[in-house]
C-alpha cells in the first residue's frame, strides 16, 4: 500500500523491500532504536520535509529489535520486556502526535491477541510481550486490517481495508467519513478523512 501514499519514504526494520524494487521509493534501514531516533529527527529537517508520508515497515519488527537490544543489556528478561514496551510506546506516542504536516503510515505483523474488551482472542497487531498490543487500538485514531481476496466475477486479486472492528479483526476509525471497507489506497483514505 505504501506505493499509493503521497511521496513516501520507508523506514524498513527488516530490509524486506523486495516488493518495492520496481518503484522509485526511497528507504532507510532501521537496525536499532538509535537508528529510528535519527530517522525521526531527520524527518523533521527540511530534507525530511520533502517527503509527505513516513512509512514504518514494520512496527512489530521494530519492537523485536528493541527487545533484542534490551535483552543484551540485562540478565532479567522481565526488565528487558518492560523497557522495550516503554521505548516502543514512547515512539508510538511521538508518531501519534506527529505535527509536521506529514502522513504517518505504520504496518505491523498480525497475530491472535487478547481482546481487552471481551477477554477472547481477535486478530490484531502483534508485539513481543503483553503490554503493547492491548494499547495500540486506543493509541491511534486509525487502525486498519488489510484484506486480500479474489474478485468472484473477474478472478482478479484485490486488497481492501477494513476500517471497523468485526468479531475476527481489530480495526477502527475515528473518522465518520470512511466506509466499513475502503479501497487499499492510502491517498484515497487520506483525502477522504481530510474532507470529512
Structure characterization notes:
- With 196 residues, this protein is of the alpha/beta class.
- The protein has a domain at 2-109: Rossmann fold.
- The protein is 33% helix and 24% strand.
- It has 5 helices and 11 strands, in the order ββαβααβββαβββββα.
- The protein has helices at residues 33-43, 59-73, 77-96, 132-139, 186-195; strands at residues 8-12, 27-29, 53-57, 103-107, 110-114, 121-125, 142-143, 145-150, 157-162, 172-173, 181-183.
- A 4-stranded parallel sheet has the order 2-1-3-4.
- Strand 8 (145-150) and strand 9 form a beta hairpin.
- The longest helix has 20 residues, at 77-96.
- It starts with 7 loop residues before the first strand and ends with a helix.
- The model has no long low-confidence stretch (mean pLDDT 94).
Question: What's the short story on this structure?
Answer:
Helices cover 33% and strands 24% of the residues. With 196 residues, it is α/β, with parallel strands linked by helices.
How does the SSE layout of this entry go?
Blueprint: E1 8-12, E2 27-29, H1 33-43, E3 53-57, H2 59-73, H3 77-96, E4 103-107, E5 110-114, E6 121-125, H4 132-139, E7 142-143, E8 145-150, E9 157-162, E10 172-173, E11 181-183, H5 186-195
Parallel strand pairs: 1-2, 1-3, 3-4
Antiparallel strand pairs: 5-6, 7-10, 8-9, 9-11
Helix pairs in contact: 2-3
